[in-house]
């Protein structure tokens, strides 16, 4: 925020009018923040807790791929409002992606009677079995991707009627992290190129097919990416620090369902099969081939992957966001009528600090439609499009899209603002109604936003070696 205001001040410093507008903008922001805080503290009953994951030890080039059960998590019949996370070291300092790259983390729910008797509870779809069945999950974009669920909506958990007798509701964390300190090729390591991991069999001991050049089959737990000759580095402790916000469940909360869409979904569901095979459902990852001189002229070296997916149930879209890897330039979800439901674009870093790592995706833009304005009907055929820069080859990329859908829309004005303001969330109406007279400030804000967008989303730059 301070950096943004400094940019505004430079743009406006040349005129008295500009200085007056800046004062008005600052007043607006101060009013909006103070009012938001008052509502959060007095009306919304929001609770928040920050937890640390179990420790995982990382050495140069090492890979952590493990599921941790019974993690710390809020209990009781509640409505989840957000889940935010970041990677930290033993001292609590943020760890940059160019040191420890978080390929992904997933958080999900299960019911346990004993450690040998776990019933996993997945999201509402669309993949087979437990594939992509998480409630929350992101990757390198974790720090700058909003996960807030606006009022009066929430993810219902802990409902006693849904917990089998004799069981407890618990949560798991699945992490996949790659330590890239001292590696020979950072981009190759985080894209899990098989030649850099020196593996010929997958995690289950099955031979890797010759045409499979990179992806999850080659960078499983306890593998190691190739280090630069002579590099020496020690091991260290890494944690996922996560903050959960929630409210107690009551009749005023409208539940949302979570859907995860995969651009690689074959649409087939083999009877009795819940795993991944070329013929069965979501493949999770795919490869992007480098463009040739011929097709480069046609599409500007953009790999476009599309898929049609059928929604089993309908409702109103409350939140949407895509998940892509380095090289991604955006993803769009279309309704059956061809209208855009959501376009989500990556934010690339351009610095050296955690949360702004040069060449890495550090955030994804999100969609928060006006509740009740975007509806998906049961059985509707959606089109998911995932776009990647194809100047170079990319292995193990993903094209996922997360949706929060409510079966009903609120029939009255919201009584509470969203949990946390974000660039993609509309500003609270009570603040804007008071400051409608500062149209000039809005114009300048649009100009600044355009400048930032060109700077952050304007193009893909390869990860530095």
TrEMBL record:
One Pfam entry for this protein is SURNod19
Keywords (alphabetical) are: Membrane, Transmembrane, Transmembrane helix
Which InterPro entries does this one have?
A: Stress_up-reg_Nod19
Membrane-spanning parts: 430-452
Question: Could you identify this protein by its name?
Answer: Stress up-regulated Nod 19
């Amino acid at each position: 925020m301070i950096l943004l205001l400094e940019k505004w001040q430079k743009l406006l410093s040349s005129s008295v009018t500009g200085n007056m507008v800046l004062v008005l903008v600052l007043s607006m922001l101060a009013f909006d923040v103070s009012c938001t805080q008052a509502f959060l503290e007095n009306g919304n009953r929001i609770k928040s807790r920050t937890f640390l994951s179990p420790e995982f030890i990382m050495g140069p080039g090492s890979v952590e791929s493990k599921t941790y059960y019974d993690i710390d998590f809020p209990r009781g019949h509640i409505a989840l409002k957000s889940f935010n996370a970041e990677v930290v070291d033993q001292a609590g300092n943020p760890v940059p992606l160019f040191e420890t790259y978080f390929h992904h983390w997933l958080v999900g729910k299960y019911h346990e009677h004993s450690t040998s008797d776990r019933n996993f509870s997945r999201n509402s779809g669309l993949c087979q079995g437990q594939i992509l069945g998480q409630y929350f999950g992101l990757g390198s974009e974790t720090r700058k991707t909003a996960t807030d669920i606006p009022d009066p909506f929430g993810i219902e958990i802990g409902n006693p009627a849904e917990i089998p007798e004799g069981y407890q509701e618990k949560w798991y964390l699945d992490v996949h992290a790659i330590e890239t300190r001292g590696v020979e090729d950072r981009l190759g390591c985080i894209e899990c190129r098989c030649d850099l991991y020196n593996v010929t069999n997958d995690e289950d001991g099955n031979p890797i097919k010759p045409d499979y050049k990179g992806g999850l089959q080659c960078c499983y737990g306890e593998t190691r990416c190739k280090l630069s000759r002579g590099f020496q580095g020690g091991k260290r402790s890494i944690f996922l620090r996560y903050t959960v916000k929630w409210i107690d469940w009551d009749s005023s909360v409208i539940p949302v369902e979570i859907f995860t869409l995969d651009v690689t979904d074959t649409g087939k569901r083999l009877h009795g099969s819940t795993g991944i095979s070329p013929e069965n459902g979501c493949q999770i990852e795919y490869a992007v081939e480098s463009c040739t001189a011929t097709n480069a002229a046609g599409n500007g070296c953009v790999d476009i992957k599309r898929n049609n997916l059928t929604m089993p149930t309908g409702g109103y879209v409350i939140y949407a966001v895509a998940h892509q890897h380095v090289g991604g330039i955006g993803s769009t979800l279309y309704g059956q009528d061809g209208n855009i439901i959501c376009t989500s674009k990556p934010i690339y870093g351009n610095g050296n600090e955690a949360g702004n790592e040069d060449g890495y995706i550090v955030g994804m833009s999100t969609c928060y439609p006006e509740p009740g304005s975007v509806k998906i009907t049961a059985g509707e055929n959606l089109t998911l499009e995932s776009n990647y820069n194809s100047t170079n080859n990319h292995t193990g990329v993903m094209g996922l899209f997360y949706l929060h859908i409510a079966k009903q829309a609120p029939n009255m004005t919201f009584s509470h603002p969203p949990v946390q303001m974000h660039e993609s969330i509309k500003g609270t109406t009570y603040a804007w109604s008071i400051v409608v007279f500062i149209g000039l400030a809005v114009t300048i804000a649009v100009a600044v936003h355009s400048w930032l967008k060109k700077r952050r989303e304007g193009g893909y730059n390869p990860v530095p070696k």
